[in-house]
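User: Predict the structure for this protein chain, please.
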Amino acid sequence: MTDIGWWGVPLAVLGGAIRVSTPFLLVSLGECITEKSGRINLGLEGILVMGAMSGYAVSYLSGNPWLGVLAAACAGLALGLLHGTLCNLPRVNDIAVGIGIMLFGTGLAFYFGKPYVQPQAPMLPSIPLGAWSDSPQIQAVLQIPPLLVIGVVLAFALDWAFRNTRWGLVVRMVGDSADAARAMGYPVNVVRTLCTGAGGLLAGIGGAFLSLYYPGSWSEGLSSGQGLMAVALVIFARWQPVHCVYAALLFGGAGAVGPALQSVGITSGYYLFSAAPYVLTLGIMIAASSPRRTLAGAPGELSIVR
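Assistant: Here is the predicted structure, written as structure tokens:
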């Protein structure tokens, strides 16, 4: 983007925000569902990596990247249901189980993913919204991932469902007061297990995006902690699905600052700028610990508020 000068920086940040925000959005929506039911899943990192490996492997073997997305969703669902089932056992802490799932999923992905580090799998297509422009930079920026569109639509659908459907009200009741839900005859453990499974499914799809779209390869260092950062993103979004869209774009834009500056020849401090998402995560966690705004809007049964 050096031929259009400094205009390349905001364009690169916008393009990066669109690409980088997609896995953040999908994983945070999944975690939003899980936490709305009163459970936290710190195993998202392992689920994300397992989804990335499963999606890449199936895409390579089948030649169809959408089958890879389906496989990643199934892998994420399986690990999510495993997390939910283990958390239903007596005297089991969901945070400890999440850490175990993170290590288990990551190790499993590394073990089975070794044969797929070198081969090139078919990638997911883009939606070319920049075809109207003659500028290759604008065309590149407006290559929209289909999974981003699906994530945005899902965010608004979830926001509506939590407010207006029986399913959404039951999930919120279980998350706010398990005793009240039991008194109403709702199976608390079943609801939480299904919500954790749904969260794992979306995290698996987020992993497939990493390996099948951007950066578009399978390697052991693919996720860079995005699964854990998604937990902070949900807190920042105050457990509101639509707010997850804005928060994901903010995180994605922060992650694109370093490459954007590099595109106009600024290489000094590149790694410092690349740390922007992690600094933002730390800042969000500090802000969330404020006595005046501590976890406002958090479900009452969530482990981090009890």
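The domain at 2-305 is CATH 1.10.3470 (ABC transporter involved in vitamin B12 uptake, BtuC).
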